[in-house]
Amino acid sequence: MKTHLAFILCMITAFASGGCLSTSLDQIDTRPVDLAKPPAMTETPTLGSEDGFSPIPQEIDLTEYSYKIKGERAVSSFLPEGIQDLSLEQAVLSALRRNRSLLVEKFNPVIAGTFVETEIAVFDPVFSAQGSVESFRDRSLDNIAARFFSIDGSRSLIRAGVAKRFQTGTDVSLDLTLSSRSDDASERSDESRAGLNLTQALLRNAGVGVNLVGIRRAQTAALASSYDLRGFTEGLVAAVEDAYWDYALAVRQVEIFQESFELAQRQLNNIRARIQVGQIAETEESVADAELALREQQLIDARSARERARLNLLRLLNPPSAEGWDRQITLSEDTVIPEVILGSVFEHEALAIKLRPDLNEARLQARRGELETVQTANGLLPRLDLFINIGKTGYSQSFGNSFNDLSGPGYDFTAGLDFEFPKDNRAAMALDRRARASYQQSLQSIENLKQLISLDVRNGLLEVERSLQQIVASASRRTLQEEVARAETVRFQVGTTTALDVARVQRDLLESRINEVEAIVNYRQALTNLYLLDGTLLLRRGIQGPGAEEVVLLR
């Protein structure tokens, strides 16, 4: 026996030493950065990859939470030298398939759904098994001889069972136990016992409603995560459309500034020619030079703005190319006025109340609060459990015979009540008040959000109407400025005005042309924003995905 004890002590010491040595964390690899050395090329492209875009691990399926355009339209192939003739629909579809921010958000509903499985698993049956072997030596006193003597023996135990919790608040377990004992003072004895144990909650945690709160709460959170994903997707689509038209505006502005720069160059050449023949004074050349320098500055800024708009659009589209940021984009849609028939403000407001993802998510959060009140109200009750334990026992000198003896007279039966109730029950009462107050707060938050949504929709509709009127006004102003510029140029040719006056008129014409294009782009972006505010952007673009239904909150 001493040998056994020494072996056990050695094992304990070894495990303790190994545990102490393994408590240190793995070291994080770091390396210094030398600014004097040229940086290495990025190993992994930050936009796409040459072999296609497939970063999703195979074991995780995100198809259920993907958004796609009806009809399974194909995205046009992206040429190595750039994206040619990119339409607005292709840009949106590319972002839905490849945008990495959206890919990150898609995992949230998957993660939320795992909590539903966790709550359902509470009611799954649990199988258990246990086996043990014990060797012992007892010391006993011999009263006649007045001395101690030792008794060596052994015990063994095998236990197996299954336990299950039911939605009614009932815990049931079945177990089978086999035990054996032998020692120097008595013969070997084996015992078999089959038992049934039942515990039923009578007050607290009794009933299906309160026991399913965890599952329903997890399901509500998972559904709310889907609406959160829809809200993110709508925001992404709106950002893509805004970026598309920002880039279209930037391209058109570069064209306008380029034409203006070339016009200023021709005017400067014309002035120099007229100075040489003595038609105008030499002072007019400095005015033309300054105007040309101004147009060049504007052209430089416009080109830089176009490049920023291109990069922003590329970031959202994430095309499958290792070149990434160097891709050029050619748009197939021009800055023209779309023909749109808008509904009344009440129609857009009614759609927003039904479809806005943030409002539906708020309704689901209120539903979770309502479920919380069900649980806290049940927690006000005292705990009163009924328990019943029934067992049949067989005895023999071998396991096999002890099984046969289970039909014999040996049995045990226990029944009773288990009661518990804290004095004043203040903790449960505080939890219940907090849950009810939070639920009422969430209901008031919904009403407040409805009011804010109505305000957003009305302001969005006003912006659409304003930008549409600005299109007409800016076009009229541009037409008039062209006539003024033409007249001022004629007057300069005949010597009745100066180059400075012509420059001022040309600036006004340039501004009017820019304003006209900006008005059209602002109108398109105002329409996108209106559809985003009333929750119909994805539906109007024919994009299908989760979170398209209205959440009805029952009170």
- Elements, N to C (H/E): HEEHHEEEEHHHEHHEHEHHHE
**CATH-level-2 architecture of the domain at 44-131 and 218-382 and 426-555:** Up-down Bundle
Rounded to the nearest angstrom, the radius of gyration is: 40 Å
What percent of residues adopt helix (DSSP H or I)?
40-55%
Low-confidence stretches: 50-54
Output the CATH topology of the domain at 44-131 and 218-382 and 426-555: Outer membrane efflux proteins (OEP)
| Helix segment tally | 12
Strand content: 15-25%
Q: At the fourth CATH level, what is the homologous superfamily of the domain at 44-131 and 218-382 and 426-555? A: Outer membrane efflux proteins (OEP)
Please give the alpha-carbon distance between the first and last residues: 72 Å
Describe this entry's structure for a reader.
The protein has helices at 2-21, 88-98, 100-120, 208-211, 213-276, 283-317, 345-355, 357-379, 399-404, 426-493, 499-533, 537-540, and strands at residues 68-69, 82-86, 126-142, 147-165, 170-183, 186-201, 328-331, 383-396, 411-420, 543-544. By secondary structure, it is α+β, with helices and mostly antiparallel strands. It has a domain at 44-131 and 218-382 and 426-555: Up-down Bundle (Outer membrane efflux proteins (OEP)), CATH 1.20.1600. The strands form three sheets. A six-stranded antiparallel sheet has the order 3-4-5-6-8-9. Strand 3 (126-142) and strand 4 (147-165) form a beta hairpin. The longest helix has 68 residues, at 426-493. The two termini are 72 Å apart.
TL;DR of this structure?
This protein has a domain of 383 residues: Outer membrane efflux proteins (OEP), CATH 1.20.1600.10. The chain is built from twelve helices and ten strands.
